[in-house]
Amino acid sequence: MELISIIPDFHPLNDENLLRKADQIKPEISFADHLLPKSCQINGKSIAPEVLASLPLRRGDQAVLDFGNHMVGRLTLLLDATGSHQDAPAHLQIDLAEIRAELEESPQDYQGWLSSSWIQQERLHLDTLPARVELPRRYAFRYVRVTVLDTSPKFQLLLCGAQCRAESAADWKNVPPREIGDEELKKIYDVSLKTLADCTQQIMEDGPKRDRRLWLGDLRLQALVSYGSFRSLKVIKRCLYLFAGTRFPDGRMSANVFTDPSPAADDTYLMDYALMYPIVLEEYLQETNDAEALNDLFEPALEQTDYVLRHCLDEKGLIARDAAKESFIDWSDTLNRRAAVQGVLICALDAAAALCGRKGAESRRQECLDMAQRLRKAAKDHFWQKEESCFSDGGQIAIHTQVWLTLAGIMPQEAARAAFEKALGLPDAPRMKTPYMHHYYIMALLRSGLRDEAEAHLRAYWGGMIRAGAATFWECYDPDDPAGSPYGGRIVNSVCHSWSFTPAYLISRYFI
Amino acid sequence: MELISIIPDFHPLNDENLLRKADQIKPEISFADHLLPKSCQINGKSIAPEVLASLPLRRGDQAVLDFGNHMVGRLTLLLDATGSHQDAPAHLQIDLAEIRAELEESPQDYQGWLSSSWIQQERLHLDTLPARVELPRRYAFRYVRVTVLDTSPKFQLLLCGAQCRAESAADWKNVPPREIGDEELKKIYDVSLKTLADCTQQIMEDGPKRDRRLWLGDLRLQALVSYGSFRSLKVIKRCLYLFAGTRFPDGRMSANVFTDPSPAADDTYLMDYALMYPIVLEEYLQETNDAEALNDLFEPALEQTDYVLRHCLDEKGLIARDAAKESFIDWSDTLNRRAAVQGVLICALDAAAALCGRKGAESRRQECLDMAQRLRKAAKDHFWQKEESCFSDGGQIAIHTQVWLTLAGIMPQEAARAAFEKALGLPDAPRMKTPYMHHYYIMALLRSGLRDEAEAHLRAYWGGMIRAGAATFWECYDPDDPAGSPYGGRIVNSVCHSWSFTPAYLISRYFI
Question: Is the pLDDT of residue A99 over 60?
Fold first, then answer.
């Protein structure tokens, strides 16, 4: 799904006070050097990394270095020449890949809708060897393939070494020790934390390969997992300030914020993402009781619910049909999102009420609670299908609708299991596409008392990803097509992605 | 012609004393900034350089910048984004070309025998715009083509500016004012000096695009022209020390020397190139009377003639047939080089005698002169074809043979014109392929009193190059195929090349 909610004549006004604070709490990045790849291949044949430096590479030769684990950082190559004196530049191509399958695809063949510029392929000329080549960009990779595009008949290339300086703002020392007896759950937990560590940079990045950007919906899940593990509170606070500091002139928050070259809102509004803000802030304050953040961010948070209440409700107390289209919920071209966004709004109002409570703004607190109740009633009246015993949105019975109205507290507990099963069983209903949606499905199962079903789904979905080879959790995973790509090429997939690692939270909180 | 005279088990021993001196006289490079290209095209349409910065470039768009003259130096591009915020890297390809025709050829199609790594094409990703991109390598170019490989649907690229910092060690202030009334000769003269300036770097480079290296045969011509123009005496002296400092253990000099990462002889011996050394040194001393250079370089110079006399002469006083194969003379696969190298050896002995005179080594001087006379007689006895009234080498009547035996002083003056015409008229005889050889042909015409023919040939050959579009003189130019390439692709041609600019010397000395 391409995000099309682009604001026309977009002229954001930054709040310099909030952004200065965001800048002051830029986290420190820690570095870890990985000196030698764990294993190497030359032209498809495995060799010991120790002998790599002695093997002359000629035009067309390829060396694949496997660093053994997912890396986010800078790559340095040590190169030399052998044979006669280097009498021409050495011309190299360097492909970096998070998973081996990326190396099998050719950038020229990629025709998808994401920019091909995300493909991690570089070319470089070396006029003088030996050379220590520090590639200037940060990459996300496990595999590095060096292809010799040309040397000359007189000399060959030597790949004497490769080094990755890994970067992360996550502090492993903060992670509480946790005994997880079950092997599958332990593996899922470990992969979740590794994924979060690699996404925790100067901001919470959605994916360190792509888009390397701060998204509000993702932030809610990133923060949840971080509280129970790395506790990257400064990063989370910085992210909260970045969203508040780059609000649109009408108070709304962008779905995502750029930080380079300076903080700037994207011109994309997603209603459900903006409504996450009071929720993220309330959860952050539950962890920290940070009075400064409450003071600075309370009004920006309430502006998110206020805007929707003022501009996007119809007379029945429902999100207007057109307004609901400016939302995400999940990747789907066919999903009717109105009921689900209604659910998100109710959750946001509950959080807003809690924030008002913290502020001592009692009448506003009551208004939020009253409004949430009104919206619950409207949703129940409008979307509940008595004869089907489930929620329906515009005639569509989707799991997404069931999930969000459950989380909003209006699914009758006794109806939940059947409603979920019905929506999942309908052949034409929209399917859940992203780990982001699967997380909320599990939360809805838990909310409905279906703990075993929740655990089974976690094992099936995230365990399935691991069985499909995941060493970090992916932006998208379709159990029916584990090797697929929604972009028209695995070469642009992001397999270390922020909205996918909530099992660490779920497992530690509900399943051990 | 691929140079195949590679020394087996090549282990050079550097003379650190000479190389330290070479290092101490490294010339200063001067810089000249060229801020805006003279003209621009976007997707083939001409635009004013001033509006370039306002034109959004999308995937597949191409901007061609024409800097108006040949440049040797560093390129800086100023880039920005327009449209929505940059949400993906910008991926660019940058092609740099000395002549426009290079841009028409595709690197992928090049299948020639020179390394494709000489093709000046770079690719780069820009994660953050705006960016000031200083490409790290030095290029030789007039045209820069920027191709947008990808942006994203949300933003476009702006090419806000381009700058070249030109580099040269040639000092234009040293060039004596010279009135050249004839327009064609003036143009040829000017282009010669521009070519020399661009080749005068930390060494005398053969070509600033390719090979960027110090060749001994080229150095003789570079120095000749420099004495009458930029007088880059330090550069020439440095080059003399580099050759002497990197002699093979048996005293011979390499045909060319690498300077990066540190001075090193190539493992290629070309007898005629090595024999140029006493000639270059003697001509340098005629200009400078540099006592230090005479003292340091006298023995290395004489080692070049001594080696050939000791190891490469047969009992008749002729260069042995096999030994002559290790020589250049001109690009040709069919040329018999024995007689021509004999001519070069005789010239070298004359120079060696002059060096001995400077040193006060009278008996060695006499030995050189006696040997030169003996070689002249042997050559005349063996190569002169009475019935043909010209020289023949192994049954082949080549212009190269006539030229070098003329320069060695054994062409009967009255026979020269006919001998040259005969060699040039034979359909199967090897033709002159390089400006290097054409230079010596003109010198032979002058030596034979054929001044008008010499000037006519200069106008025909170098004037022809200019009529074919040369703004600097080319490594190779075939009047019958001005757009040809001896390498299998113009994209690797070097059109600013050291052995091609002797007209500045010839014109100032003989034709005005």
Answer: yes
pLDDT tens string B302-328: 999 999 999 999 999 999 999 999 999
* Cα–Cα nearest to B486, from B477, B499, B496, B497: B477
Beta strands at B256-258 and B264-265: parallel, antiparallel or unpaired: antiparallel
Quote the CA–CA distance of A456 and A502 in Å, as a whole number: 15
What is the number of residues in chain B? 512
Chain A residues touching chain B at CB-CB below 8 Å: 2, 6, 10, 84-91, 113-118, 122-125, 127-130, 137, 149-154, 210-211, 213, 258, 260-261, 264, 266-267
What average pLDDT does the segment B393-398 reach? 97
Question: Rg of the Cα trace of chain B?
Answer: 25
- pLDDT value of position A1: 38
DSSP for residue B66: E
Taking only the tens place, the pLDDT of each residue in A212-265 is: 999 999 999 999 999 999 999 999 999 999 999 999 999 999 999 999 999 999
The alpha-carbon gap from A500 to the nearest alpha carbon of chain B, in Å, equals 21
ipTM over 0.90: yes
Contact A129 B91 (CB under 8 A): no
SS3 state at A303: helix
User: Which residues lie across from A78 on neighbouring strands?
Assistant: A132, A161
Q: Which structure tokens are listed for B124?
A: 């780069």
CA A303 to chain centre: 25
Question: pTM to 2 decimals?
Answer: 0.94
% of chain A beyond a pLDDT of 70: 98
Helices (H), B333-415: 338-359, 362-383, 399-407
> Which residues in chain A are closer than 8 Å to B91, comparing Cβ atoms?
115-117
Decide if A63 contacts A93 (C-beta within 8 A). no
> How far is B393 from chain A, CA to nearest CA, in Å?
32
pLDDT band at residue A38 under the 50/70/90 scheme: confident
Residue in A2, A85, A211 nearest the CB of B258: A85
